[in-house]
Design a protein that fits this description.
The chain is mainly alpha-helical. It has five helices and three strands. The longest helix is centred in the N-terminal third of the chain and has 26 residues.
Length: about 100
């Protein structure tokens, strides 16, 4: 594995772990509502990473963003008790 490929693999794996951790926190506390700034501090993310991760979680239907710019677990996800998993997370879970 050359250096560039290794860096991409490492970044991808870290991203998947971060997304998994964020999903787990919202699953554990369904009433949790965070601004991007709060999420950055809680999860140790840079602002650009936070925006990308939360946008992806909104797009997949895990989180919603309210008019107060706070992110929370989507009501249908909380009600179903189901957290959609990304393809990367499913591969990571199988490999473990």
């Amino acid at each position: 594995m050359n250096g560039n490929t290794w860096l991409q693999f490492h970044a991808s794996r870290n991203s998947a772990q971060l997304v998994h951790r964020i999903r787990a926190e919202f699953r554990e506390m369904p009433c949790l509502r965070l601004t991007c700034g709060q999420a950055q501090r809680l999860f140790g993310m840079r602002p650009d990473v936070c925006e990308r991760v939360f946008a992806a979680l909104v797009e997949e239907g895990t989180l919603t963003c309210g008019p107060d710019a706070r992110y929370g677990l989507a009501p249908e996800v909380a009600w179903r008790g189901h957290m959609p998993a990304s393809a990367e997370e499913r591969r990571t879970a199988k490999a473990s």
